[in-house]
Amino acid sequence: QVQLVESGGGLVQAGGSLRLSCAASGRNSYARGWFRQAPGKEREFVASINWNGGTTYYADSVKGRSTISRDNAKNTVYLQVNSVKPEDTAVYYCAANTRSFRAGLQSSEYDYWGQGTKVTVSS
Question: Does residue 82 register a pLDDT over 70?
Fold first, then answer.
């Protein structure tokens, strides 16, 4: 069993930055990802990272202004988003794929999810 707990959400002004954290219990040597769901929309991929942080993927919507990273000693994955926009407003979910070391882009690849942390970007 893996438990994921996100933190760092809240109200951010457009143009500012946000940093989300996702702490995991139990074994940590697997792929992790961030997804988000805006009001009235489907959950979408944001970023993912492989087991040792050597490979990362980003959605086009955040590429160039986001960084996903991990600290395996702390069992924690981070998502930094700079130059935030109102369209970044969403509930952000952390996910873990305990069946693979490789980062994935599809939500169906992930078998554990956090409860989500809400981010609101004001214009």
Answer: yes
